[in-house]
Amino acid sequence: MREAHVARPEFIRAVQDEMSGIVEKPLPWTTRAVANPWLRKAFLLVVLAVAWEIYATVLNNPLLVPRFSETMRAFYETAANGTLPARAWVSIRVLLIGYVAGMLAAAALAAFASSSRIGRDLLETLTAMFNPLPAIALLPLAMIWFGLGNGSLVFVLIHSVLWPVALNTHSGFLSVSSTMRMVGRNYGLTGVRLIWKILIPAAFPNILSGLKIGWAFAWRTLIAAELVFGATAGSGGLGWFIYENKNQLEIPNVFAGLFSVILIGLLVENLLFRNIESRTIRRWGMHA
C-alpha cells in the first residue's frame, strides 16, 4: 500500500510566506456602482426625471404636462401642509381593511380546496367565474348594496385580493410533494395543523407571489374607485385628491398625487415584500 506524501515543514512555511504577501486590490468604484442594484435603479430614475423635465420644458404647456421641478414643488408643499399625508393615510387604512379581509377569505377558500374535492371544484368554478371580472366593474353594485362609504370600497378590494391569493395558494399546495404530506401525517398532523406546519412553509413562494399580485390589484383598484367616489361622495383619499385638483386645474398637484401613488407602491414592494422574501424564501433556500 502506497504511503501518503506529506509536505515537508519548510515547504509549508515557504507557501505561507508567499501567500502572506498577496494584497487584495479593491474593485474600481465604477464596477462596484454597476454591481449595486439600488444605484442602477437610482440612475434610471434620475434619467427619467431629466427626460421629463426636458420634455415638459420643450412642450411648454403646464395644463398637459408640468415640469418635474413643478411637480416636486407641489409634492413638497402638499406634504408639508399635511394634505397629502392625510389623504394617503385614508387610502392606506381602507386598503389594509380590504386586503386583510381578502387574504383571510382566500386562506379559508384555499384550505377548503386542499382538504376536499368539493372545495377544489368550488375554488376552480368561482375563480373561472369571477377572476376575469374587473373589481371596478362591481363598484356600481357595491354602491347599491353598501351605500356611499368605505363598505363599498372594502367590497371591491376583497374581490381584487381574493382570487389571485387563493389561486396562488392553492397552486402552491398542489405543488407540495406527497412525501412531505406523508411525513406530516406520520407525525400526526392533520387538517389545519398539516396546512400550517407543512403546506404553508412548502408553498410559501407561491403564497408570497399571490400576496404581491393581490396587493398590486388592490392598490390600483382603490385609487380608481376613489376617483368615482370623489365624483359622488366628495370625500376620499389619494384618488379624491387627484380628482379634486383635476377639477381645479391644479395639474402639478395631480401629478404630485400620482407620484405619491407610485411612491407608496415602490415602498411596499421594495421594503415590505422584499424584506419578507429575504427573511423567508431566501433564508430557507427556496429561491430559484
Mean of all residue-level pLDDT scores = 81
Distance between the termini: 47 Å
Q: Which secondary-structure class do the elements indicate?
A: mainly alpha
- The CATH homologous superfamily of the domain at 93-236: MetI-like
TL;DR of this structure?
Helices cover 78% and strands 0% of the residues.
Task: Explain the layout of strands and helices.
Layout: H1 9-20, H2 29-35, H3 37-59, H4 68-80, H5 83-115, H6 117-130, H7 139-146, H8 150-175, H9 178-186, H10 191-202, H11 204-232, H12 238-247, H13 251-279
Helix pairs in contact: 4-13, 5-6, 5-8, 5-11, 5-12, 7-8, 8-11, 9-10, 11-12, 11-13, 12-13
Keywords:
single chain, 288 residues, mainly alpha, MetI-like fold, 13 helices, flat
Structural notes for this entry:
By secondary structure, the protein is mainly α. The chain has a domain at 93-236: MetI-like fold (Orthogonal Bundle), CATH 1.10.3720.10. 78% of the residues lie in helices and 0% in strands. The protein has 13 helices and no strands. It has helices at 9-20, 29-35, 37-59, 68-80, 83-115, 117-130, 139-146, 150-175, 178-186, 191-202, 204-232, 238-247, 251-279. Helix 5 packs across helix 8. The mean pLDDT is 81.
